[in-house]
Amino acid sequence: MSGSEGTGTFSSRWGMLLVMLGMAVGTGNIWRFPRIAATNGGGTFLIPWAIFLLAWSVPLLLVEFAMGKAARRGPIGAFATMIGQSWAWMGAWVVLCATFIMFYYSVVTGWTLRYLGAAIAGELPGAEPGALWESYAGSGWAVLTMAISLGIAVWVVARGVRGIEQAARILMPALLVLVVVLAVRAVTLPGAERGLAFLFTPDLAGLGNSRVWLEALTQNAWDTGAGWGLALTYAIYMRAREDTTVNAFVLGFGNNSVSLLAGIMVLCTVFSVRPDASAEIVGAGNTGLTFIWVPQLFAAMPAGRFFMAAFFLALFFAALTSLISMVELATRALVDRGMARGKAILWVAVAGFVLGLPSALSMAVFENQDNVWGVGLLVSGLFFGIAVLRYGVDEFRERFVNSAGSDVRIGRLWNVAIWVVTLEALVLLVWWLSQTISEQGWAASLDPFARWSLGTVLIQFAVVLALCIAFNRRLARLAGSAAQIGQRS
Questions:
Q1: How far apart are CA 445 and CA 373, in angstroms?
Q2: Average model confidence (pLDDT) across the chain
Q3: Is 488 part of a structural domain of the chain?
Q4: Would you state the pLDDT for residue 125?
Q5: Which residues contact 371 (CB under 8 A, 6 or more apart)?
Q6: Within the chain, which residues score under 50 in pLDDT?
Q7: What sign does the CA torsion over 235, 238, 240, 242 have?
Q8: Which pLDDT score is estimated for 486?
Q9: Which residues contact 29 (CB under 8 A, 6 or more apart)?
Q10: Angle at CA 315, nearest 5°, toward 121 and 39?
């Protein structure tokens, strides 16, 4: 069985958009965006961040929507049927990169679940800041919460597209309400205006710093889900006359709106409760900010226990909806190979648990995988750009973007955007790889077992790329048995 046959479609645009928004909105919106915005000039950062929404996220989301809707296959089949079977390996990279992220993202989801329980039970903030984190991270409890989180995601995916949609109809409105409530509470705190001023007052001189632009582009690449293959996978279940253009813009702007609300929530709270430690708090890293400082901040607020629980509930919902999309992508890749969906889900569940264990038990392994495959996503975005260029930008736009059912037609400016996206992906890839070069010399830079080194990135990339290319013919035959879409072969 190929394509979307037997799997159903989303019941409505509203249901589809909630599912897509659940895919896009994750922990990167709630814990990474406030930190990156704060460490890159606050309001100054927002300018390039908004620009790259239109110069990276929306163009790539349009590509993914168009490919998934046209091919009715996951990334491997979409690449094989749309630009030629010799390019199936690119789709395989996209699948494997997102799946490797799934292995450790289930651990992250488990962290949010544990802290939700701790907030409700009154275990936070504890006698010492970070005491709970020190005793929990890398322990058997982290394995348990990972397993529970993965089990919930697998259960949702096992119920098919309607199950995913039903879960999104509950989780996403609840998440949005929680984020809005927390943001409103934050802006009503004494001194919150300092956080608002910092977040929304740009220093135009700071725009001359190239790092601010690169960080803004990276944030768009990592928190919208554009170029991950997730939007493509969900687009398989779009109705035939569903509009891709409006959906891409709604998804991009909706996702970044959640990030902005999260920034207001965190930074207003920081500047109100601990203005003396604002630099230390926002510079504490994702886990330090979220699992050590957030409990301290909320504990100092009136009704802090309630708002702390609401924060971790929102974070859990954000993580879970993104995890569901990753489980669906991995499952879809196996279904496209001809495997029964029930068996595919079982394989994904077992692999997710077994291969997630190292990240659950070791923060060194977790950080290594997060670093390597976060950069791997930039390669995925590059591959989507290459796919459109190979097909022909004009023809792709007219045939698949401005397709039947499109309420808004995309003009030739999008052609330029695709070339820009491809260049951006190359620039980001070079920049991030340059960050792996150690000041301690080339020996340290090439250490394949380091948490963050050029060696560990290149070796893991080389192994995965070699496997994708070596099995390309088989992948193309299994996933692209239907007639090719378009003129390429």
A1: 18
A2: 92
A3: no
A4: 85
A5: 451, 452, 456, 457
A6: 1-6, 481-489
A7: negative
A8: 47
A9: 223, 255, 258, 259, 262, 318
A10: 115
Reduce the DSSP state of residue 88 to 3 states and report it. helix
What pLDDT was estimated at residue 487? 41
Three-state DSSP class for residue 484: coil
Structure tokens at 196: 């608002």
How many domains is the chain built from? 1
pTM of the model: 0.94
321 close to 124: Cβ distance less than 8 angstroms: no
110: domain CATH number is: 1.20.1740.10
Question: Rounded CA gap, 388 and 416, in Å?
Answer: 12
pLDDT of residue 5: 40
Does residue 101 form part of some domain? yes
Query: Can you give the pLDDT at residue 127?
Result: 64
Within-domain flag for 2: no
Does residue 8 lie within any of the structural domains? no
CA distance 99 to 239: 26
Residue ranges making up the domain that contains 475: 13-479
How far apart are the C-alpha atoms of 58 and 189, rounded to whole Å? Answer: 35
- In angstroms, the Cα distances linking 397 to 138, 411, 416 are 47, 8, 12
Question: What is residue 245's predicted lDDT score, i.e. its pLDDT?
Answer: 86
Whether the Cβ atoms of residue 391 and residue 82 lie closer than 8 Å to each other: yes
